[in-house]
Amino acid sequence: MGFELLTDVDGLVLLPTRSGDFDEKGHVRPGAGFELLEEAVVAWSQKNQEPRPLNVLEHWFCVKSQPLCPGHDFLAEVHRSYLSNSSCEFVISLYCGNCYAAEKTENILAQGGVRFLHRQGSQGPF
């Protein structure tokens, strides 16, 4: 299945990799986590034609010992949940774009979440 078909699926966005995102063995660097999470939320918001949330309350990020295949980009699976009228959380799972299979969560490279507060003065979605 090509990237074009995968990214047509709700919740999936492609994130180009940078050398600082992973170590020499291909493992995701924990220090790259927040930037990767932010990029996934921005890409998901653009894909869904929604304003991106701005006010971060908190975030978390965990990596697995699964390496990214050389020369491939990340495929991010993004899920948004409304926590209240004033906040939402995005949970993002990062996969190798080459190895992604929806039913195989053991192929996950990293996972994280970002909790946002409504934009000040806005109504409705973030």
Q: Sketch the major β-sheet.
A: 5 strands, antiparallel
Low-confidence stretches are 1-7
The CATH topology assignment is: Thiol Ester Dehydrase, Chain A
Widest β-sheet, arrangement of strands = 1-3-4-5-2
Give the strand tally: 5
What is the 3D shape? globular
Number of helices: 2
Oligomer: single chain
User: What is the helix/strand order?
Assistant: HEHEEEE
Terminal Cα separation, in Å? 32 Å
Brief summary:
The protein has 126 residues and is α+β, with helices and mostly antiparallel strands. The protein has helices at 3-7, 33-47; strands spanning 12-15, 55-63, 74-82, 87-96, 110-117.
Q: Main attributes?
A:
Thiol Ester Dehydrase, Chain A; 126 residues; alpha+beta
Give your account of this protein's structure.
- With 126 residues, the chain is of the alpha+beta class.
- The chain has one domain: Hotdog Thioesterase (Thiol Ester Dehydrase, Chain A).
- It has two helices and five strands.
- The protein has a five-stranded antiparallel β-sheet with strand order 1-3-4-5-2.
- The longest helix has 15 residues, at 33-47.
- The termini are far apart.
- Residues 1-7 have low confidence and may be disordered.
Topology readout:
Elements (H helix, E strand, L loop, with lengths): L2 H5 L4 E4 L17 H15 L7 E9 L10 E9 L4 E10 L13 E8 L9
Antiparallel strand pairs: 1-3, 2-5, 3-4, 4-5
